[in-house]
Amino acid sequence: MSERKTALITGASQGLGAAMALRLAKDGFNIAINCRGEVEIENGGRQVKAECEALGVKAECFIADVSSFEACKEMVAAVKEHFGTIDVLINNAGITKDGLLVRMSEAQFDMVTNVNYKSVFNMTRHVGAVMMKQRSGRIINVSSVAGLYGNPGQFNYSASKAGIVGMTLTTAKELGPRGITANAIAPGFIETPMTDVLDEKVKARCMEAVALRRFGKPEEVASVVSFLASDDASYVSGQVIVIDGAMQM
Prior knowledge:
The chain is α/β, with parallel strands linked by helices. It contains nine helices and seven strands. It has a seven-stranded parallel sheet with strand order 3-2-1-4-5-6-7, sandwiched between helices.
């Protein structure tokens, strides 16, 4: 068992999750890297693990489909057994299946809400029990500006990210008496695999809506997460921090 604190990050094999893992490893946290399966481990998880360990902390990959209640329960138990503690939970896993509302299939809606939204319940339910016994913990949920302002073509994604805000506020109130904080971040356009697939003309239009005239970097989001996971944020709870370069919606 390590004396270091442990951070469990869902969807941490690439993009924002990987950046958060590396930043918290730099801050001295042991890192539990959630991957959906062996493919994600091979296509990023193993590298994130190695880069975290190079910073002098312990890191391990844990497979779980976070849309499954039982899979989350098993993963949380495995992380607790491996590291001895879970001090920070970052609910980061997310997908998109975009489409206009009147053309969106039920499968599109269910898939996105199960991964983006239900996973937050699954993970918080199981990790919350661990943190309550410890009487301490930090829960950080990744929402989106789409959940605050809406976005055409993303009815399912916007709904899932808006729901995360409500869950964050309730978590902060329910678990606060046990010394647990809960906050959400709402990134705007960030350079990740999700935005890499956008057409160049679409990217240009997106940048025009951002006062800073550029996409954010994953490391800039990770810096805010670093603060929320630190002792400096011990009295910050129930907040939604927007990271969007002054984006005009």
